[in-house]
Amino acid sequence: MTDTLHGDAVRALRDWTVQDAGQDGLRRDYLGHLAERPDGLRRACLPAHITASAVVVDPAADRVLLTLHPKVGRWLQMGGHCEPGDDTLAAAALREATEESGIAGLTLVGDGGRPQVVRLDRHEVHCAGRDNPAGVHLDVQYVAIAPPGAEELISEESLDLRWFPYDELPELTDGSVRRLVALARDLTG
């Protein structure tokens, strides 16, 4: 992980304009984590580390692409751990979305050409397997727009990959994903 990524994560969170008190509290918690932990974006940073994700949408068709996560057993947005080659959180989110969706040419929603954080979500996970203590993902979320006519290609990181109409999300979708999808719809509609 580079100092560039750490600095970008601090900048992205610090510069994000948040209207919601709960999201602002998470933003402050994430910034505190990064201030205390130079390794705060590494998977090995325990008990918590920053991750990046993006919900892939096709606004022209009013649909969202979700992956059925093999470890979680729920439909989620694309995302995961930051890697050594990621210089920015947005690049990590875009890389994960591209790898997991199989769609080239995704673009992140932004302001003035700069991808913007849209939401934060803190959740417990078992990165090291179910037999090991749970950790916490401090997820930084973006919205990715699929190019016209995009066709998904399932990866080995997914049990299933499907487009869903915004108003017909599958039962195995939690409240956090539903809130992210609603926000993505508002931002791209």
TrEMBL record:
Tree of life domain: Bacteria
InterPro entries according to UniProt: NUDIX_hydrolase-like_dom_sf (IPR015797), NUDIX_hydrolase_dom (IPR000086)
Nudix hydrolase domain: residues covered: 47-186
Gene3D superfamilies with a match to the protein in the record: Nucleoside Triphosphate Pyrophosphohydrolase (3.90.79.10)
Pfam families hit by this protein: NUDIX
Keywords of the record: Hydrolase
GO molecular function terms noted in the UniProt entry: hydrolase activity
PANTHER family given in the database record: ADP-RIBOSE PYROPHOSPHATASE, DIHYDRONEOPTERIN TRIPHOSPHATE DIPHOSPHATASE
Family of this protein: Belongs to the Nudix hydrolase family.
Protein's name in the database: NUDIX hydrolase
Species of the source: Kitasatospora paranensis
